[in-house]
Amino acid sequence: MRVIKPQNPRPQAFVVTHRLAQSNRKVVQNTKVNAMAQQNELVTLDPRGGSTHEDTGIATRPASLDGLVIGLLSNNKPNSELLLSDVAGLVGEQYAIKEIVEANKGSHRVPAPPEMISDLAERCDVVITATAE
Q1: Alpha carbon distance 88, 81 (integer Å)
Q2: Rounded-to-integer distance, Cα 22 and Cα 119, Å
Q3: Which backbone phi and psi does 78 adopt, to 5 degrees?
Q4: Whole-prediction pTM value?
Q5: Contact 14/49 with Cβ under 8 angstroms?
Q6: Is residue 1 part of a domain?
Q7: Are strands 126-130 and 99-104 parallel, antiparallel or unpaired?
Q8: Which among 28, 50, 80, 87 would be 20 to 30 A from 64, CA to CA?
Q9: CA 1, CA 60: separation in Å to the nearest integer?
Q10: Which of 120, 119, 67 is nearest to 91 (CA)?
Q11: DSSP code of 111?
Q12: What span, in angstroms and rounded, lies between the C-alpha atoms of 52 and 103?
C-alpha cells in the first residue's frame, strides 16, 4: 500500500470580485484581489488553488478482498460513518474479510493527521474513504 501525502494540505484560495453592471445586471469579473467590496459588488472566493504535488496514479488493486484487513476512514460529515458501515456490510457479504479497522479524521476541512494515515497504512490492506450528507 502506498501513502500519498499532499505537500500543500491547504490550497491557496484566489479572491475574485465581481461587479454587477448597472445596465443589465450582468456579473462582470474584476481581478482586483485586494479591493474591498464596493456597492453593487459581490466578493466570492475561488477555491481552485494550485497543487505542488505530482500525480502518482492509482494504487494497485488486490485481486480479491478475501482475508484482507479493510480500513474505513470517515471525514466526520453527517452520515459518512453510516455510509461506510453499510459499504463494509456489503463487502462482508461478498468476501471473507479478516478485520475492519475504523478511523474518523474529525473534520472534512482538513487532511487526516499523518499518524492516522501511517497507522491505517500499517494495519490495513485496503482503505475505503467516504463523504456523505
Answers
A1: 10
A2: 57
A3: -55, 130
A4: 0.58
A5: yes
A6: no
A7: unpaired
A8: 80
A9: 8
A10: 67
A11: P
A12: 27
pLDDT tens figures, 71-120: 999 998 888 889 999 999 999 999 999 999 999 998 888 888 999 999 99
Task: Report yes or no on 22 lying in a domain.
Answer: yes
* Residue burial 73-106, b: 16+ Cβ < 10 Å; e: rest: bbbeeeebbebbbeebeebeeeeebeebeebebe
Which tens digit of pLDDT belongs to each residue from 33-83? 434 445 556 667 667 766 677 777 788 889 999 999 999 999 988 888 899
Q: Which amino acid is at 15?
A: V
Asked if residue 119 and residue 85 are part of one domain, the reply reads: yes
59: cell is 494504487
Q: Which amino acid is at 117?
A: I
Domain that holds residue 37: 14-46
Strand segments, DSSP code E, in the chain are 14-20, 27-30, 41-46, 69-74, 99-104, 126-130
Residue 73 sits in the same domain as residue 32:
no
